[in-house]
From TrEMBL, chain A:
Keyword Ribonucleoprotein tagged: no
Keyword Methyltransferase: no
NCBIfam families: PRK11650.1
ABC transporter domain mapped to chain residues: 4-234
Record family assignment: Belongs to the ABC transporter superfamily.
Protein name: Sn-glycerol-3-phosphate ABC transporter ATP-binding protein UgpC
Keywords: ATP-binding, Cell inner membrane, Cell membrane, Membrane, Nucleotide-binding, Transport
PROSITE patterns in the cross-refs: ABC_TRANSPORTER_1 (PS00211), ABC_TRANSPORTER_2 (PS50893)
Amino acid composition bias (Low complexity), ranges on this chain: 362-377
Signal peptide from the UniProt entry: none
Originating organism: Microvirga arsenatis
Record-linked SUPFAM superfamilies: MOP-like, P-loop containing nucleoside triphosphate hydrolases
One Gene Ontology MF term: ATP binding
TrEMBL record, chain B:
The keyword DNA-binding appears for this protein: no
Segments forming domain ABC transmembrane type-1: 98-310
Membrane topology listed for this record: Multi-pass membrane protein
Keywords in alphabetical order: Cell membrane, Membrane, Transmembrane, Transmembrane helix, Transport
Name under which the protein is recorded: ABC transporter permease subunit
Subcellular location, record wording: Cell membrane
Amino acid sequence: MADVVLKNVHKSFGRTAVIHGVDLHVRDGEFVVFVGPSGCGKSTLLRLIAGLEDITAGDLLIDGQRVNDLAPARRGIAMVFQSYALYPHMNVYDNMAFGLELAKSSKAEIDRKVREAARLLQIEQLLDRKPRQLSGGQRQRVAIGRAIVREPKVFLFDEPLSNLDAALRVQTRIEIAKLHNDMRATMIYVTHDQVEAMTLADRIVVLNGGRIEQVGTPLDLYHRPANLFVAGFIGSPQMNFVPCQVAGLGPGEVLVSLPGGGTLAVPVQPDGVTTGEPVTLGIRPDHVRIRSEGALGGRVELVEELGENHLLHVDAGQGRLTIREPGDARHEVGSTVRFDLTREFCHLFRRSGEALPSRTGAASPAPSSPNLSSSAA
Amino acid sequence: MTSAVAQGNVSVPQQARGRRSSLTRSRIRSAWAFIAPSLIILALIAGWPLARTIWFSFTDANLNNLSDYEFIGFENYLANYDGEWLGLLTDPDWWHSVWNTVWFTLVSVSIETVLGIIVALILNAAFPGRGLMRAIILIPWAIPTIVSAKMWNWMLHDQFGVINDLLLRLGLIAAPMTWTANADTALWAAVMVDVWKHTSFMALLILAALQMLPQDIYEAAKVDGVSPIRVFFRITLPLIKPALLVAVIFRSLDALRVFDLIYVLTSNARDTASMSIYARQQLVDFQEVGLGSAASTLIFLIIAIIVVITLAAGRVRLGEDPR
C-alpha cells in the first residue's frame, strides 16, 4: 500500500501535448476516481502511472520512490483493463497464476494466492474455464483476481465496468467498493460515468483537456464546484446555467438581475466582482421550485417521467431550464409554469468560468479535510 | 435440451410445418442452382482428369497410342513375374524421389516457418517505411518459379555464377563448386531458392494472424512483467497457431508437388528428382502412361494422407486451444 504522487506531469505524443502539468497526491489506501469527458486524458494519466506510456516531463512517485524509469512490472501496480485483457488461450487459473510464475513464487504459494483471490471474488468454480466460456461479469472478476494475486501497492482500473450491462455494473460497482473496504489498498479508477465516480470515490479528480479542473470529495464537487466545467459535469441532469448581470453587492451576497426581469440575492462572496459584470448563475434542477406565485415563468416543452420523480424542460424565454419535481408530472407540454430559484443553492460563475466562493455554511456541507492537495486548472 | 427441441417439433401444427418446409425446399433449390456451375466446372477440370489418371494407372496405356490399352489391374503398382517382384512399388528410383520430396518439404517448410515468423514479427512492429517493406518482401513470391529457378541457376553456375565468384573472392572456397550438379548440394540449393521465394508468403499469412491479436493482453503481460521471449512462446505462438497451421499446410501442399524449381535448377537430374519429376519422366520421356498415372495416383494419395493427418492433428489442437 502506498502513496502515489504526481508532480507537474506532462505527456506529449509527438507534438501533441495531452497532459499539461498534473499535480496530484493520492494518499495511502485512498480510492481516487479520474472522471472527465472523452479525450480529457484520464486514461492516458492512468497509463502513465502504470508505466504503459512514458512520462514526457515531471515526476511520478509511488511509495516515495521515483518510478518514471521503472518498467510497469517493477512499480508495484496491478491494472484492470476495460476489455479485461485476459489471455484467451489460458484457463482462469492460469490467467491469474501467469504473472506470479515469473516472480519465482513457489507452486504452493501461487496456488494459495490464486485460490484465495478466487474465493474472495466467488469464482472458485470457474478456475478451469477459458475466458470465452465466461460472461462479461465473470471475466471482469477474473481480471480483478489477476490484479489481486499480484498483491500490488496500487490498483489501477481503466473503465472496468463500461463493457457490462446496467444491472451487472451496479452489482460489480458495489463489489469493488467492498473490495476496497476489505483490502484498504490504494486504488485509482478511471471512468466517464459520474455515478461510478460519486459512489466509489474517496476523492474525485475531474479532468478536462489534459488538466485537472478540481479535486475533492464527491459531495464537495457536487455542492461546491470550482468552475463552470465541474458544475456542468457533475450531477445529472446537468446544472442549469442562466446568463445574468451583477446588479449590486452586499456583505456575503451578490445581487444579480435575471434575464427575464427581477433580481436575486445569491449568498456568495463577492470576491472582487463589480456591478454590471456579466456572470453565469448555476442552479441544479432539484433546486428550482414550482410555485404558483413564483417570480419566474415559462412554457413546458418536454416532460420526462422517471417514476420516483419527473423532469420538466421549460422554455423560460432566455434559455431552457430543467426542473426536477417528485412524483408524477402535474403539468402538460405547452402549459405555463411559475417557479422560483432557491437562492441558497445558487452558484455564480465569473465570465472566466471560475466560481465565486460560497458563504460558509450556506448550500454546502462543512469543508472537507484540509490536506486536500488539489491543483488549480 | 435435445428432447425439448424434439418436443417443440412435434407440437408444430401440420400446416405450419408444410409451409416452412416448402420455403426450405425453395431455399435448397436456389442454393443448388448457385453451387451447380462451380460443381460442374470442378468436375470437368479436376474430377475428370483425376478419375482418368486413376483409371489409366490400372492399364498398360502408352503415349504412342492412347486409344489402345488393356486393363491390367495393379500390375503398374506391383506385380509378380516368375517369382520376381516388379512395378512402381519396387522401383528404387520412385522411392528415392519420394524421399527427396519429403525431405525437401520438411526442410524448406520448417525453415520458411521459422523465418516467416521472424519476418512477420519484424513487420508487425511499427517503424517508418513499414508499408514499403511489406511490398518489397513480396517481390520474390511474385516472380514466376520458372524465372527465379533460372535466375538462381545462373547465379549458382559453376563457371559464370556470381555466388562462386563471391565465395572465391572471400576465400571461403578454394575451387568453384558445382552447386546444382552435385547431389550433395543440389537439394540444398533447391531448398534455399524455395525459402528465398516462399518465406514472404509465409510471413504475410502470419502477419495477418498477428494483426488480429488483441493488443490489451500484451499490455497486461507488460504489467505482469513477462519477458518478451516468454510473451512470444506463451502468448503469441499459441494464439497464432491456427493460422500458422493453415500456412504450413498451404506450403506443404505446394512443396510436396514441387516440380519446376527442381527440374530447372538441377537439369532433370535423377538424384534430385521429386515425385512429380518421376511421374513426368514415366509419362512423357518413357511414354509409359500407365506407370506414370500410377505414380501420379500415388502422389495424390500421399499428399491426401499427409493433409488429412495434419488437419486431424490441427483440429484436435484447435479443439483444445480455441481462441
